[in-house]
Amino acid sequence: MGESKLAGQFFDAAIGLLQEVRDGDSAEIAAAGAAVAEAVANGNRLFAFGAGHSSLPAQDVVYRAGGLALMNLLVVPGVVGVDVMPATLGSALERVDGLAGAVLDSSPAAAGDVLFIISLSGRNALPVEMAMNARALGLTVIGVTSVAYGTETKSRHVSGTYLKDHCDIVLDSRIAVGDAELSHEGIEAPFAPASTVVTSALMQATMAAAAEELVRRGIEPPLLRSGNVDGGHEWNGRVMTEYADRIFYRH
In this protein, which residues make up the domain named SIS (predicted)? Predict the structure, then answer.
């Protein structure tokens, strides 16, 4: 078989979006990286949260080779992935008032920590409430969202606001409402979402900016190595021991 025209179009769309966020979000990415570096340098903690498929970019920066060992996943039971049964329950829980506050109150997150909140639409009660409560607790909130949803959709939070309205820094994924890059004759629904590709790139770019800022401050970034290379486990053991009080996915 020859190459797929639609596959090529998806790559083109994803590359175009990556170029957009690289150029359009550069200042915000640098600011987010500086906030992460500040937390690392000051003994604070790092957390990432996302619901549904927005949890994938959050998971992408937690406990992985080449990533900051201090990044922790803030888990809201029932919304992290599609393994919850039925899968539609996760979507329903995103609209439940009070859930984010309960999770934050029982988490180790505290004033001075950094929390990434990833939500493509930013319109549901869960990410909005999470951002509002986190800022009230004194956390630095970095929202990763598509700002377009704030003008083209209706908020589902009682305040009528969106995630983007309650953040210290906003990283705009620039994903169009509906999250589908392609359409084709004979296919009724649009398809080929790119939000995971772009949002994961925003997260990794921010981690790179944080590492750069830490080095500028004379601090060795607490990075993990691959366990599949010689010496990786030993390296990771030393990092995890040194920063044990700020790593919550081990116990």
Answer: 36-219
pLDDT higher than threshold 70 for residue 138: yes
Closest CA to 45 of 208, 236, 222: 222
Q: Residue 1: pLDDT above 70?
A: no
pLDDT in tens, 15-64: 999 999 999 999 999 999 999 999 999 999 999 999 999 999 999 999 99
Distant-in-sequence, close-in-space partners of 192: CB < 8 Å, separation ≥ 6: 6, 9, 10, 13, 180, 181, 182
The tokens describing 59, both together, are 């998971």
- Phi and psi at residue 66, to the nearest 5°: 80, 5
Reduced DSSP (H G I as helix, E B as strand, rest coil) percent helix, strand, coil of the chain, to 5? 45, 15, 40
